[in-house]
């Protein structure tokens, strides 16, 4: 398979792999280069490394995992020679497990790798190429499809985590999502607000006594029915853990 690398900015590239049309990034410095995520399978990982090495013209020394979902980490067994980086919550075996922030120098290309708490998963990392003004956000943002929720998602903190990287961004910053085309800061702000709505609107519905079974039809949501079928139970569960649950309205007699 021949990979096609699309320039995002000077010396920053992205390629898209099946299954799930997952994005993999390549950031090239004067002395070294880094892959951002590594595809679905070891075979893809090997193809990625060979293709990235040919394009970069410098050694590919690092692979940084934005989170632990299989379509982002499946290629890791083929990249054992690289320094691999993940959040400490990610189960994939990596060289460096970080919790908050770490910097890497590739030679006139500085990477800031950051975590702002549980969000899309319990192990999300942002990778900011400061000189190129590009940030790889993994599945914290999605273009062309809805953001996805799993059992480790924190709907309460997801918007706050996005605020962390939005605060470090400039108007010209380019955001590369885990799936879909690169987007601008305005897109990121809008999707941040849509994600925040899941939790805040659910809390409002609960206060009105709306049960989970009725929540999808109780208001207009910015996401599909398939997404809501997963996201709303998660939101109700997070709020229930805080003691926020719908109250049963007792009938009023004698009227």
Topology:
Blueprint: E1 6-9, E2 12-17, E3 22-28, E4 33-36, H1 42-56, E5 60-64, H2 70-73, E6 83-87, E7 96-98, E8 101-105, E9 110-114, E10 126-129, E11 134-138, H3 158-168, E12 174-177, H4 185-207, H5 212-218, H6 225-241
Parallel strand pairs: 4-5, 5-6, 6-7, 11-12
Antiparallel strand pairs: 1-2, 2-3, 3-4, 8-9, 9-10, 10-11
Keywords: Hydrolase
GO molecular function, one term: hydrolase activity
Protein name: MBL fold metallo-hydrolase
H-E order? EEEEHEHEEEEEEHEHHH
- Tell me, what's the shape? elongated
The H-level CATH homologous superfamily, spelled out, is Ribonuclease Z/Hydroxyacylglutathione hydrolase-like
The largest β sheet comes out as: 7 strands, mixed
Overall mean confidence score, pLDDT: 96
Q: How many strands?
A: 12
End-to-end distance: 74 Å
Share of helical residues = 25-40%
Compute the gyration radius: what is it?
20 Å
Our estimate of the beta-strand percent is 15-25%
The number of helical elements comes to 6
Strand order of the largest sheet: 1-2-3-4-5-6-7
* CATH class designation: Alpha Beta
Protein name: MBL fold metallo-hydrolase
Organism: Tessaracoccus defluvii
Keywords: Hydrolase
GO molecular function: hydrolase activity
Describe the structure.
- By secondary structure, the protein is α/β, with parallel strands linked by helices.
- The chain has a single domain (6-191), classed as 4-Layer Sandwich (Metallo-beta-lactamase, Chain A), CATH 3.60.15.10.
- Helix content is 30%, strand content 22%.
- The protein has helices at 42-56, 70-73, 158-168, 185-207, 212-218, 225-241, and strands spanning 6-9, 12-17, 22-28, 33-36, 60-64, 83-87, 96-98, 101-105, 110-114, 126-129, 134-138, 174-177.
- The strands form 2 sheets. The protein has a 7-stranded mixed beta sheet with strand order 1-2-3-4-5-6-7, covered by helices on one side.
- A hairpin with a 4-residue loop joins strand 8 (101-105) and strand 9 (110-114).
- The longest helix has 23 residues, at 185-207.
- The N and C termini lie far apart (74 Å).
- The model has no long low-confidence stretch (mean pLDDT 96).
